[in-house]
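Translate sequence into structure tokens.
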Amino acid sequence: MNKSKSKSLISALNVYSVAGQFGFAVLVPLLLFIWGGVSLARYLALPQWTTTLCVILGILSMICGLCNFIAMLIHRYGQDKVCSVEAKPTPRFNRRDNDYSRLN
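Result follows.
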């Protein structure tokens, strides 16, 4: 395989891994809290509002997980390459580079 094919394969696998992590961050908290709430309500004969409470907790947990995941993506991939190319380098000055350095 040449380098362009291997780079495209790596970038495709990177996209698939990010999509899988996104799905994992959405589905797991919802499924765990919904299944846990229904199971607890049936096993312990709890009222219906406990299931609703577990669903709300699952949604909140999912939102927190997604916020952390998006923050990680921004940290990893959020470098603005257009601005970094167009940004002017900081000027560097040498103290001995002017005519007034020997005026003591």
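Note: The chain is about 75% helix and 0% strand.
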